[in-house]
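Annual report, structural modelling task.

Input specification for the nicotinamide-adenine-dinucleotide complex:
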Amino acid sequence: MKHYDLVVLGAGSGNMLLGPETAHLRTAIVEPARFGGTCLNRGCIPSKMFVVAADAATTARSAKRLGVHATVDHVDWKAIRDRVFGRIDPLHDSAVAYRRLAMDVYTEPARFVSPTVVEVGSQRISSDSFVVAVGARPVVPAIPGLEDVPFHTSDTIMRIEEVPESLVIVGGGFIAAELGYVFGALGSSVTIVQRGPRLLPQEDEQVSARFTELAAERHRLLLNTEVMSVEARGHGVAVHVAGAAGREPGETVEAAALLIAVGRRPNTDRLDAAAAGLDLDEHGHIVTDDAYRTSVPRIWSLGDATNHFQLKHMANAEVRVVRHNLLHPDDIRTLSPRLVPHAVFSDPQIASVGLTERQARERGIDCLIGVRDYADTAYGWALEDTTGFVKVLADPRDRTLIGAHIIGPQAATLIQPLIQAMTLGLTADRIAREVLYIHPALTEVVEQALLAL
Ligand SMILES: Cc1cc2nc3c(=O)[nH]c(=O)nc-3n(C[C@H](O)[C@H](O)[C@H](O)COP(=O)(O)OP(=O)(O)OC[C@H]3O[C@@H](n4cnc5c(N)ncnc54)[C@H](O)[C@@H]3O)c2cc1C
Ligand SMILES: NC(=O)c1ccc[n+]([C@@H]2O[C@H](COP(=O)([O-])OP(=O)(O)OC[C@H]3O[C@@H](n4cnc5c(N)ncnc54)[C@H](O)[C@@H]3O)[C@@H](O)[C@H]2O)c1
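The model returned the following structure:
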């Protein structure tokens, strides 16, 4: 049996762990699918490349509010898709070839046999240390009939042959918000079936209410609605739903395509984690401490396999910590994810960090709240924006920021100085008054929200 110093399971974020610092170790990496994992091949990166194309179409269609009359003549989906994946797909082969120069690469899924041995296809390999970075996959809910109809998840829909004339999306979270926007802007008639009363329910309520209101202007939203069953109809699907207030139970929505986007679950169920003695939580995540040590000595875990955030910037930070800890066992670093920001790249964009207003109240914090509309600032006028806003929350005891939520153009970029300020523990007054904000940039809306506290 071949023996290594370090074996990494999963070449998504796990691939980034290996570099010059680990070159002195006998290493191997196991990846049954594509190097780069979810983010590169079927997640963050392709989805944002499609979002930019959707933004171009949306900008053209909405330019008449500025006095510029434009129309979208034609969306060449295949050209967009091939541009996106023409850039992404070659990276797998080059990554494999590059890794093979320095280490063994295994291309079948790994399963633990014991805390020091994994089975990869017909081989067994042993290692002093393992890093488990096997990621997550889309949840496929137990909807009657689903197994008998063609359906997509985020893994497949970005590679389809044509934009479906109509699309039903089950789920109202990140993926529904982003890919619903993409396919809507590029030509589909989109229906979103969400079991709760709002889209993006994890956002601050004011933000998610505004987003739901705006999404309802371009998609058909079936809120508080359950999918009862699905069946094939013509070249597409018929989705039977029930439960929405004010509508008859038994309504059927027909569409050319179906996208299931109800969350993601860790791939740990396919790893025989028990054979290694790894503790899992009730959602199947590998339990680690703040240093990313699992319950088994010399087995580490990172990314979607272990954290609940399921965000790439979190996995990236974890890679740095795990790499350091592997190499410096006498100087263990930790990562306490006190502040994990996120953004939703839809139209409008959303970005958020820290507590929502409801979470602050649940913790007994009678927080100060500053809200400013984009429309109150010069650049907001230039954009003719009427719906975006910045909301900041501060602790009344010391006026430090405890939450920030933005909905509107460039929200994901605008929030960054607030993330910095919160991470560094600055008071709202310091970032509002001791910093100059470039006039008349959109950042003035952040300044104004802070001054409103
Ligand atoms: C559509 C979509 C859009 C997203 N957009 C964003 C975004 O804009 N911003 C953001 O921060 N996050 C985004 N995410 C989330 C982000 O992609 C993930 O958080 C991130 O990819 C997690 O990295 P990871 O390394 O933990 O897992 P992965 O990247 O999934 O890598 C895990 C790897 O392990 C391999 N593997 C699985 N089982 C085994 C096994 N038994 N043995 C060996 N290898 C195995 C898999 O094949 C995979 O390549 C998005 C996700 C999706 C689905
Ligand atoms: N911009 C980003 O950072 C980004 C983008 C896409 C995905 N992601 C990651 O991928 C994860 C998965 O995204 P997602 O959109 O699949 O999940 P999600 O957890 O964001 O949302 C799932 C939604 O589906 C609803 N739902 C669950 N079961 C349902 C059912 N049977 N019928 C109707 N609605 C149902 C839930 O109420 C929830 O609102 C995200 O949590 C996020 O971590 C991140």
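Residues 9-14, 30-33, 37-39, 43-44, 47-48, 109-110, 133-135, 154, 175, 267, 270-271, 303-305, 310-313, 315, 345 surround flavin-adenine dinucleotide (ligand 1) (CB under 6 Å).
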